[in-house]
Specification:
The complex is a heterodimer. Chain A is built from no helices and ten strands. Chain A is mostly beta strands. In chain A, strands 2, 4, 5, 8, 9 and 10 form a six-stranded mixed beta sheet that branches. Chain A is globular. Chain B is mainly β. In chain B, a hairpin with a 6-residue loop joins strand 5 and strand 6. The chains are: A mainly beta, B mainly beta. The interface between A and B is medium-sized, with 23 and 22 residues.
Amino acid sequence: NFMLTQPHSVSESPGKTITISCTRSSGSIASNYVQWYQQRPGSSPTTVIYEDHQRPSGVPDRFSGSIDSSSNSASLTISGLKTEDEADYYCQSYDSSSPWVFGGGTKLTVL
Amino acid sequence: EVQLVQSGAEVKKPGESLKISCKGSGYSFARYWIGWVRQMPGKGLEWMGIINPIDSDTRYSPSFQGQVTISTDKSINTAYLQWSSLKASDTAIYYCARLFRMGIIDYWGQGILVTVSS
């Protein structure tokens, strides 16, 4: 089994760009798709990125995802930050024995 | 519109049993696996298990194997999560979620707060 490690918290100002990382502990980050979920305070999670970089309909193109095999990590980038982006963000992947492996979550503060 | 509508909040005592539900609508329920996720107060997301409504093939996280039972009734497009004997440590929000393909969630339920307290 593997783990996904995220920074506990990040912060940035409105209008700026932020990147949240998600590092896979073992096995290749490229071997299974990575998803990103947004959870605003008091709400259920929603999917903002799936299959590494795909955006569900309705998710603004300010949200983008990528993977980097050299660092064995995935990244969620949010550009043109808005106060409404303030939320917890979770990365998630899987393997043959675990349908879902979640990262610990990153609290994004938009100052 | 795809929706997963979960049953309401529950307050129970330790040792009691509980069954919570998740009703799918707006899609062919039997075609997609459903899973359950726990979120303890102030903590992250933990997967509990997933079930295929067509044949009830169920896979549990090792952390939850033997602690809960996941089931479905595809005749009423509903998935269930149940406990036979609750503990205070089961206090959490429980989300159901649809897997658009294995390992990938596309829709989430609104969550059910389960409080277990004497």
